[in-house]
Amino acid sequence: MGKSKYKAIDLFAGIGGIRMGFDQAFGKDIETIFVSEIDTPARKTYQANYADTFEIAGDITSITASEVPDFDICLAGFPCQAFSLAGNRKGFEDSYKGRARGTLFFDTLRICTERENKPKVIFCENVKGLPIHDKGRTLSIILNSLREDGYVPFYKILNSKNFGVPQNRERIYIVAFREDIAPSSFNFPTHAGEKKTIADILDPAPISAKYYLSDVYVETLRRHRARHESLGNGFGYEIRPLDSIAGAIVCGGMGRERNLIIDHREHSMTPVTNIKGEINKEDIRKMTPREWARLQGFPESFVLPLSDTQHYKQFGNSVTIPVIKAIAEQIKAVLDNAQ
Fold first, then answer.
1. Which CATH fold would you assign to the domain 6-194+318-337?
2. Per-residue pLDDT tens for 4-57?
3. What's the maximum distance between 2 C-alpha atoms anywhere in the chain?
4. Which of 100, 167, 231, 306 yields a CA-CA distance of 20 to 30 A from 318?
5. Is 74 assigned a catalytic role?
6. Which of 80, 112, 124, 251 is flagged as catalytic?
7. With a threshold of 0.70, does the pTM exceed it?
8. Domain boundaries, the chain
């Protein structure tokens, strides 16, 4: 590969969603030189889609800053664990600047700042509840830590449904520029692409019978929801109209029952897996992993090498590519201007 203008590292990389958005925005001007991901199945999907010449690194807590080559952009979709202060006094053996290391955000910061050449920008994505977590103290710690280490942070909550995918998914995005190149303000995009509905992302028929629920399972879901509703709870399955949008596909791949659809198109009524009862005659089915990929804006060329279970989990944990791309385009404008 020729010399790219910007070098990037991909931490908590998952299946490479954040990287993909930046690759789309920066084109040949970006080169990923280091990747870290602890989950073995996620690494397999990542490797099936990116032809890197280096090995994917594992547990970030065991990686020293000196092991990571110099880079300009840090991509970090760090997990939202409990953010807490270790106390006012320093000296804790397993701490970073006196703060508990139970939060992987500080490992991101450590890799970025314990070096002579600090990166130009740090990009983070997290759950929308981050600003209210621990009464706002969690986000405050993150932003103040970035400032203490010489960065100017900006953040905004954006909804995927405004970026050309039919998914109601709110996430917080944090962009921190190194002080010497930081703009006085940063304009997060509010929308991109055309609005879509579930009907726009469906697989062509016929859909495999394995995605259609059994009549026994449908009845179980109905009883389950009725029981919860009688207790005043809102838990239950949900059938989404094809002319509407999906609810957020969630971490761990759970919640497939929250995004059921009715698909009357041709399909076999002969089960291909062991089910109780028979395939329901109402044509209720769960979405396929490829449809979940489209809900996140992944291209058709994205390879799905593993089981359905793994891919539901991976897409639920991933990011919405068009949102990342739109933010990355704004970041590129700032960086190019600072050259």
1. Rossmann fold (3.40.50)
2. 899 999 999 999 999 999 999 999 999 999 999 999 999 999 999 999 999 999
3. 66
4. 100
5. no
6. 80
7. yes
8. 6-194+318-337, 204-287
